[in-house]
Amino acid sequence: MTDITIAIPTFRRPKGLRRLLASLAALETDVTITVLVADNDAEGHKGYDLCRTLSDEGYRWPLEAIIVEERGISYNRNALVTRALARPQMQFLAMVDDDEWLQPHWLDAFLRTQSAFDADVVEGRVVAVFKDGTTTRHYEGVTSDCGPSGTMKMLQSSANILMSRRLLDEMAPPHFDPAFALSGGEDKEFFVRLKALGARFAWSSEAFIYADVSDSRAGARWAFARAYRTGNSDMRVFLKHRTGGAALLREIAKTAGALLLSPVMALILAVSPNRRTAALRKFCRAAGKTAALFGSHYQEYSVIHGE
């Protein structure tokens, strides 16, 4: 029988974690599941305490919680991978975030996509849910949507992924670069290294999950800040793995073009709020890339969103 570890990094979101764990308990599947939670709040450790309580109360799946003292998302993810790989029977590792929750057929949908495309890593769709209950498949930094299920050249987020054990065993630790611990972008850098090892990527539209959009992430200000961070971390990943000077010059030219043209497009598209906002997000992304070229790192994970 297929053996899967579901790994959850958490930090000061006990309400979100409880909702996620409840949705995991309601999964409809025949596979063998172990749930692993890494709490990055070594002082308060409310997520850790919640897991211990649920386990004592007879939680449906084996539930293990650990505390990760070193602050940052990379350290939390690395602790999860290390602990999961210590289980010799594990075949797949899934990762979801503590502000998300699942639909009952999520895991089986992931496995069908993985099998159909013989993928080493599968990324699933994330649907944003706002406080008023409305949803969207497109929201900066929260959702993802790449169309119908199929193969992909590159993945973008570890918010909803299923990974085979093979390449995780082959990759030298740390799997997630600690240099991105507080900035984010650790998942993009991880995927770049997996690609270099020959990983096959796929996208699953059917393995979708829901993500909470807190008030602090519901407006244009967040969307612009997230676009800036994405550009900043993407450029840092590019600089780490670039193959030569010509590639750098092309990237600088593309970034400069976006900086110059995006404000003009925002003015032209002023009568269309959505298209104007998209143009301004491109400008913010280019600004983040420019900052990274000069050594500036945006620390997104110094702020907590949600509960």
- What is the end-to-end distance? 36 Å
Low-confidence stretches: none
Give the H and E element order: EHEHEHEEHEEEEHHEHHH
- The geometry reads as globular
What is the level 1 CATH name of the largest domain? Alpha Beta
Strand proportion, as a percent range, falls in 15-25%
CATH topology of the largest domain: Spore Coat Polysaccharide Biosynthesis Protein SpsA, Chain A
Provide a compact summary of the structure.
The chain is an alpha/beta fold and 307 residues long. The chain is 43% helix and 20% strand.
Q: Any key phrases for this structure?
A:
9 helices, 43% helix, 307 residues, Spore Coat Polysaccharide Biosynthesis Protein SpsA, Chain A, alpha/beta, ten-stranded mixed beta sheet
Walk me through what this model shows:
The protein is of the alpha/beta class. It folds into two domains: 3-213, Spore Coat Polysaccharide Biosynthesis Protein SpsA, Chain A, CATH 3.90.550; 220-302, no CATH class. The chain is built from nine helices and ten strands. It has helices at residues 14-25, 46-56, 73-85, 106-117, 165-170, 186-196, 220-241, 245-268, 273-293, and strands spanning 3-10, 32-39, 63-67, 92-96, 100-102, 121-129, 135-136, 150-152, 160-164, 201-212. Strands 1, 2, 3, 4, 5, 6, 7, 8, 9 and 10 form a ten-stranded mixed sheet that branches. A hairpin with a 5-residue loop joins strand 6 and strand 7 (135-136). Helix 6 (186-196) packs parallel to helix 7 and helix 8 (245-268) packs antiparallel against helix 9. It is globular, with a radius of gyration of 19 Å. The mean pLDDT is 92.
